[in-house]
UniProtKB/TrEMBL annotation:
E.C. number(s) listed in UniProt: 6.3.4.13
Location of the ATP-grasp domain: 107-313
Family recorded in the similarity comment: Belongs to the GARS family.
PANTHER family in the cross-refs: PHOSPHORIBOSYLAMINE--GLYCINE LIGASE, PHOSPHORIBOSYLAMINE--GLYCINE LIGASE, CHLOROPLASTIC
Protein name stated in the entry: Phosphoribosylamine--glycine ligase
Organism: Eubacterium ruminantium
């Protein structure tokens, strides 16, 4: 089959790598792709948001299967544009992607269907939000309602910080229109775990667990980012917790969406907090997490096309989803200055070191070709992922492999997966 992959980051590179392994696939196109995805796909210069030209391209090339991977086009209805033309497409429709596109919608859904989560209030008036904070317990969490590249969440320790947060989100519009509405949420404590699940609208199958590191600096300091590294599986996500989440979070969410007339087909990302009172849902995403995909996908035994087709066809109950009994760690190589300001266009050296390594990957997040060489083209540049028999080994392998790659302004955290050593 001919496959069109919509997206151009590290998540899409990991997906492209898996799709290329499928014996069902003869040709992959990526829009817009990146320098790493170009190893597996023909990259075409069409924006992920340009539904009209994406559909036109898919028809011209007689594309058999489309994968819409990023959050913005899903929220904007790009998957709908393909589906409405009868083109088989993996990714939720706009009316289901709202589970990520609106924090207020997802919180109301959790409340209505008794899905365990933090207490919250929603505001579209900054003055009312400020008034509410006067009596609220600190620390507290402020969330821009809409999509903000994974950065629209502020944890405020004091009333002054919270007031400043309201100003940033709702008045200064730091996250643009995403901050027209805001969710104010109780602060939960515990370990965070990410669980990505495949869903066909009725059946939901969780993948192996992972844990992301959001903050820019070591020891979880600095600003929130799109993710500075991940490890999989989480040693804190036990079989008992997995059973509880399946019964109280994953299946109820899919059932709730169907009851609301918003059948969810695709990847449902569940961000969990393992609190002293049991697991609770922090947030949903309507797609593979990035960089979570970079540690979860390499551990999956199944043909990714088989699983994605089953999600589209409603036959996921027939799939025996399996993962290797190993571990993976991803360390993000970023541009110094990210997530605020940074320079681009620096040549990247050493990528050839990954060519013949089975358990090591350099997933490109922000790269492009310039004058026949690969250069930096984003804040997060490359996710260095390594496998190992256990988490400690995978972590050592990943950090060793970060030394194989060099570029000016290279920056990374040095404590990804440190929690593993603290067990």
């Amino acid at each position: 089959m001919k496959v069109l992959l919509v997206g151009g980051g590290g998540r899409e590179h990991a997906i492209a790598w898996a799709v290329a392994k499928s014996p069902k696939v003869e040709k992959i196109y990526a829009a817009p792709g990146n320098a790493g995805i170009a190893q597996y796909a023909e990259c075409v210069d069409i924006s992920v948001m340009d539904a009209e030209n994406l559909v036109k391209f898919a028809k011209e090339k007689a594309i058999d299967f489309v994968i819409v991977a990023p959050d913005d086009p899903l929220a904007a209805g790009v998957a709908d544009a393909f589906l409405d033309e009868g083109i088989k497409t993996f990714g939720p429709r706009k009316n289901a992607a709202i589970i990520e596109a609106s924090k207020a919608f997802s919180k109301d859904l959790m409340k209505k269907y008794n899905i365990p989560s933090a207490a919250y209030e929603t505001f579209d008036d900054a003055e009312l939000a400020l008034k509410y904070l006067e009596t609220a317990k600190m620390p507290i969490v402020l969330k821009a309602d809409g999509l903000a590249l994974g950065k629209g969440v502020l944890i405020c320790n004091t009333l002054e910080e919270a007031k400043e947060g309201v100003k940033e989100i709702m008045q200064d519009k730091k996250f643009g229109s995403a901050g027209n509405r805001m969710v104010v949420e109780e602060f939960m404590t515990g370990r965070e775990v990410s669980v990505l699940c495949y869903s066909d609208g009725k059946t939901i199958k969780p993948m192996t667990s992972a844990q992301d590191h959001k903050r820019a600096g070591d020891n979880d300091t600095g600003l929130n980012t799109g993710g500075m590294g991940t490890f999989s599986p989480s040693p804190f996500y036990t079989d008992e917790i997995a059973d509880y989440c399946m019964k109280n979070i994953y299946q109820p969410t899919i059932d709730a969406m169907r009851a609301e007339g918003r059948e969810f087909k695709g990847v449902l990302f569940c961000g969990l907090m393992l609190t002293p009172d049991g697991p609770k849902i922090l947030e949903y995403n309507a797609r593979f997490g990035d960089p979570e995909a970079q540690v979860v996908i390499p551990r999956m035994k199944n043909d990714i096309i088989d699983v994605m087709e089953a999600c589209v066809d409603g036959t996921l109950d027939k799939i025996d989803l399996q993962f290797e009994d190993n571990a993976a760690v991803c360390v993000m190589l970023a541009s110094d200055g990210y997530p605020v300001s940074y320079e681009k266009g620096f040549p990247i050296k050493g990528l050839e070191n990954f060519a013949d390594k089975k358990d090591y990957f350099a997933f490109h997040s922000g790269t492009k070709f310039k004058d026949n060489e690969v250069v930096t083209n984003g804040g997060r540049v490359i996710g260095i992922t390594a496998l190992g028999k256990d988490l400690v080994t995978a972590r050592k392998n990943a950090y060793d492999a970060t030394e194989w790659v060099s570029f000016d302004n290279k920056y990374m955290r040095h404590d990804i997966g440190k929690a593993i050593d603290e067990q």
